[in-house]
Amino acid sequence: MKLTKTVFTAAIALMAAGTVYAHGHDGFYGRVEQMPAAGSAEQTWVIGGKTFMADQRTHIDSRRGTEIKVGTCVKVDGDIDREGNFFVSEIEQKRDSRCTALTK
What we know:
By secondary structure, the protein is of the alpha+beta class. The chain has helices at 2-24, 96-100, and strands spanning 28-34, 44-47, 50-53, 59-61, 73-80, 86-93. The chain has a six-stranded mixed β-sheet.
């Protein structure tokens, strides 16, 4: 019983830490390397070498009247849902210089 309580307490602490991280970070910046085709049910994005799964909750924010495409600099924000799962809340287009600074 004591072990179960300890494991449960540790799990709650980790979930809380993950929630703080999700809300307190500055997002992930990178260039779009792969993105889903328009109207595709598949919502896999590869940004800055990392794979992200978008869904109906994800807000795609283009700037300056241009569409996000392969090579575009973006910021990925995420959150933790009620079940404790990470999801991409927003993919936001950023100035090209924001990603150029990452490669220097």
